Amino acid sequence: MRRSEVLEGFKGGLIIALSSAPFAVLFGTVAVDNGLSVLDAAMMSAFVYAGASQLVGIELFGQHVAPWLVVLSIFAVNFRHILYGAAITRFITQFSPVQKAIAFYLLIDPQFAEVIKRGEAGRPVTFTWYLSFAAIIYVPWVIFSVVGAWFGSMIGDPRVWAIDVLLPIYFLGLVVGFRKRRNFFPVVIVSIAASVAAYHFVGSPWHVSIGAAAGVLLAALLPLPTPPAEIRAEGSPVQ
Amino acid sequence: MNDMGTVWLILAAAAATYLTRVGGYVLITRMRTIPPRLEAALNAVPAAVLTTLFAPAFFNGGLDIKLAMLTALIVSLRYPGLVMLAAGWAAAMGSRHLLGL
After folding, report:
1. Nearest C-alpha of chain A: how many angstroms from B10?
2. Residue A196 φ then ψ, to 5°
3. ipTM (interface predicted TM)
4. Does the pTM exceed 0.90?
């Protein structure tokens, strides 16, 4: 355990913890609104640990949709993790099997983004750093979910405090961070068109899988750069 | 639905989610090398997926949401995440409570 790596992990994760705290509170509030107990909300945050899919699951749970369909929808929203796991594998080959099992349990969107950023910059992705970064996000996520569930009724309408705009703004910011990548603009434009169309014609949460599949498929079909060695160099995100 | 049903639903959702997180590793370690087109596809994953999490909100949202997200987009080109989040939030609060959008 290197102290500097623990501190670096905490520092990087703290921003995510702060910006996701309102969503944890929001999740807890919505969960109780839709008939879950405080303990259920805490369990869902601790065991599923995937913000957007937790909110999708809660919404469907409240509509009394068949349980298998709730699980399938959560699977659909989280399907992107399959590609995250494949993408980070090359940076965590030195992890032990148990460390890998723990690492994948904690593999959320910002964790993935940070691993790629760190790995592509040539910096070591150690388990100590990985776990520190994850822990400072995970623990507050569960705590603030419980806080939201307990005090949720006091927030009232989330629109009044503009809680509802925070989640899309957060994801928008993450996408902007990848703007120097190869094929960024064609991929984003196609994903926007496909997800908006799927939202209208198929419905939520399928717009996530359909929009993502369209963008990824386009990236696979676009002409490859002539020297293949440059893929990674050009693909590294800014900062 | 009874309480045990809810607990089982949460555990099933957790298992499905863990499957998506570990599945990519299982797939990629079965293959010796990553084909260039798969690599290009993997490179596009974050932008493609995260785009779908904000695009419908922008196009289906009212003027308040659009104004907040455009503000956040401009701020995000120069400033870190939390500043962007604060600017977008302030724009949403302003457009709702001051402009009445």
Report:
1. 6
2. -70, -40
3. 0.80
4. no
